[in-house]
Amino acid sequence: MAENRQNRTELKDLGEFGLINHLKQQVTLYNPSTRYGIGDDAAVLSESEEETVVSTDLLLEGVHFDLTYTPLKHLGFKAVAVNVSDVAAMNAIPQQITVSIGLSNRFSKEAIDELYAGIYAACEAYKVDLVGGDTTSSRAGLVISVTAIGRAKKEDVVYRNGAQPGDLLCVTGDLGGAYMGLQLLEREKQVFLSNPEAQPELTGFDYVIGRQLKPEARTDMVHEFKESGVRPTSMIDISDGLASEIMHLCTNSEVGAVVYEEKLPIDEETLKAASDFKIPSATIMMNGGEDYELLFTIKQDDFEKLKNNPNVSFIGYIADKESGAKMVSKGGQVIAIEAQGWVHF
Amino acid sequence: MAENRQNRTELKDLGEFGLINHLKQQVTLYNPSTRYGIGDDAAVLSESEEETVVSTDLLLEGVHFDLTYTPLKHLGFKAVAVNVSDVAAMNAIPQQITVSIGLSNRFSKEAIDELYAGIYAACEAYKVDLVGGDTTSSRAGLVISVTAIGRAKKEDVVYRNGAQPGDLLCVTGDLGGAYMGLQLLEREKQVFLSNPEAQPELTGFDYVIGRQLKPEARTDMVHEFKESGVRPTSMIDISDGLASEIMHLCTNSEVGAVVYEEKLPIDEETLKAASDFKIPSATIMMNGGEDYELLFTIKQDDFEKLKNNPNVSFIGYIADKESGAKMVSKGGQVIAIEAQGWVHF
C-alpha cells in the first residue's frame, strides 16, 4: 500500500455519510430489474417472473487475503467475482450485489477508491449493479462482505443434487493455477521478509499469479449453456478444490464418480510452477482451491452439443453411490477421493 | 462468556462443513417463497409478483458490540432485528436472511450455538428464513454480516424521498432507551474493570438495558399500516438517532421539518437514567441511536386512521425546504437540527 502521503484524504475527515456519498456517485447501473439502489434503508428490485438466487461471502484480512501482495483493486474485483461465481454455479445470471466493508484508519480515501475501482470493474465485467451495503470502521483489519443476487427461469436453475449415474463429469478452464499463484506469492513474501532488498522472482508466472489475484467467474458458461441448449444436471463452482467439490456433488446427488487424471486440464505455467515446488500436478489439480471454474454434469445425449467447446473438459463420469468417488491415475491406479474441505479454524 | 469447559466442543474438531451441517439441521423455514435454503452455491427464492427489498449490515466486535456485557444470544437476535428493521422501514415484509460469521478459536461450538439460538429466535419472531451464509475463521474478533430480503407490492414500497410540506411527522414507540442502556452497561463495565468484586447496579433498568441488548424491529407497523389503509409518504428506521434520521428524510425529500420536544415519546426508565447521568432528555431523544423505531410521515388526511394507535406519536410536521429542520423546545426556543451522523472512523 505505497501511497503518496500528499494525496491522502483521511477517512475521519470524510465521515461515514461523506464516504457513502462519494461511493454512490461512482455507481453505474446495468439492469432494468434494479428499481432503486444505494440511498435508502434497503435496495428495491422489480418484480420478476424468474426465480431469485442469493449468495454471500465474507472475506477477512489475514484469513482470505494478504495485503502485502494483494493490490486493493484486485481484491475488490475478486470479492465480487467469487460471489458472482456462486450465482453462475446455479446457472443463473447475476444482476445485483451489496458490498459491506469494515475499514480501519490506516486506509485513506484513496485506498478505498482503489478497492472500489476493482469492485466497479467487476460490476462492469459481469454487468451487475451495486445496490447497497454498509460501511463501518474496523479495529481489526479489512473486512469485506458481498451478497450477490441473480435471476433464472425456474426450469433453468441447476442444483448440486441432480447428477445421475452415467452423466458426464465436466470442468471449465484449467485447474490448480490459483493455488500455484498463491505458493509463488507466499514464497516471495518470505524472501522479502528476510531480505527486503531481494527482487521478486515472478517472471514467467503472470498467468498463475493472475489466477490467484484476479480470478474470473464463468458467467460466460451460463450464456453458452443457454445457446447450446444444454441444462447441466448438477453444478458447483470450484472454490475449495476439485476433490472437495466432487464430493459435494456426490453427497448431494447420492452418486459416485470416476475421474481420469489424464483428462484434467492444467496450464503449462501451473505445471512449471508445480515442478519448481516439487508438488505432484495431480495434487494441485485435485486439491488446489480458488480456481472458480465450474464443475458440472450433463446427460450423455448432450455431449455432442459441448464437445467442441474450448472451455469444457470432459474429465470422467458419474457412477453408482456404492462405488464411491475415485480417481484413475495416469499409471492406471485407482485412488479414492477423500472429502477434503478446508479446516481453517 | 463463562463456559463450562467440560461441555466445550472445539471448532477445529468440527471443521467448516461439520459446523455448517450442524447449523443447517436447526433451521426452520416459514415462507413459501423460500424455494431452496442452505446447502448449495446460492439460495433460491421463488418468482414473485412483488418487488424484492434487500438490506445488509456488518457488525464488528469492538465497534458495534462488546462481548463483556453482550450475551451471544442477544447479539444474534439483534444482528437479525436491525436488518429486518431496514426492510420494515421500506414498508416491506421481511422473508429471508443470509448470515455470515467470522469466528476465532476462542469460540466453542456451544458459544456459536448460543449466537445462533438468538438468530433462530429472531427468525421465529419475524418469520424470516435463514437461507444461506458463510462461516469462516477470524483472527480478529467476531464478525457478523446479515443480509435481509423482503417483499412488498410495488405501490406499497415507501422510500425516504416522499415527504411533502404539510405531512405529519410520526415516530413509533419511545426514544433514547437504547442509548441510556448502553451508558449504564458501559458504566458498569468500567466499575467491573477497576473492581471485579463490585456488584453491578442495574436494578430498575431492565427496560433500557433490554432496548440496547435486544431491540425489536417494528414489522408490526407494516401490518398495521396495511390494516388501517395508510401508506406513509416517507419512512426510515432510527438507527443513528432521531436528529440524523430527520435530516435524511429532509435531504432525500427536499423538505424541512418542525419537531416539538414536548411531543417526543420517552419511557420513565430512560428519563430516570438520563437524570442519573445528568444528560438532558432532549439530547437523548434526538441523538441517542439504536432504538430501531420507525420515523415516518403521513398525509394529514390519514391522521384519523392512526390517531388512536398506541404505538404512534405525532411529533411534528414537514415544512418547506427553505425553513430547514428545527426543534421547538419545551420552553418555546427554536433550535436548528444538525446533521449528526456518526463519525467513528
CATH topology of the largest domain in chain A: Phosphoribosyl-aminoimidazole Synthetase, Chain A, domain 2
Structural class of chain A: alpha+beta
On the 0-100 scale, what is the average pLDDT of chain A? Answer: 91
Q: Hey, roughly how much beta strand do the residues of chain A contain?
A: 15-25%
Q: Which radius of gyration of chain A do the C-alpha atoms yield?
A: 21 Å
| Assembly category | homodimer
Number of H- or I-type helical stretches of chain A? 10
Protein chains sharing the most extensive interface: A-B, 77 and 78 residues
The description of the largest β-sheet of chain A is: 7 strands, mixed
Give the helix proportion of chain A (percent range).
25-40%
Sequence of strands across the biggest β-sheet of chain A: 8-10-7-11-9-12-13
Distance between the termini of chain A: 28 Å
Number of E-state strands of chain A: 13
Write up this protein.
Two copies of one chain form a homodimer. With 345 residues, chain A is an alpha+beta fold. Chain A has two domains: 7-156, 60s Ribosomal Protein L30, Chain: A; 168-336, Phosphoribosyl-aminoimidazole Synthetase, Chain A, domain 2, CATH 3.90.650. Chain A has helices at residues 11-24, 72-88, 109-126, 177-194, 206-213, 219-228, 242-253, 268-277, 281-287, 303-306, and strands at 34-36, 43-45, 51-60, 93-103, 129-137, 143-152, 168-172, 234-237, 256-260, 294-298, 312-319, 325-328, 334-336. A seven-stranded mixed β-sheet of chain A has the order 8-10-7-11-9-12-13, sandwiched between helices. In chain A, helix 2 packs parallel to helix 3 (109-126), helix 4 crosses helix 5 (206-213) and helix 4 (177-194) crosses helix 8 (268-277). The first copy, chain A, is globular and about 65 Å long. At the A-B interface, helix 1, strand 2, strand 3, strand 4 and strand 5 of A face helix 1, strand 2, strand 3, helix 2 and strand 4 of B.
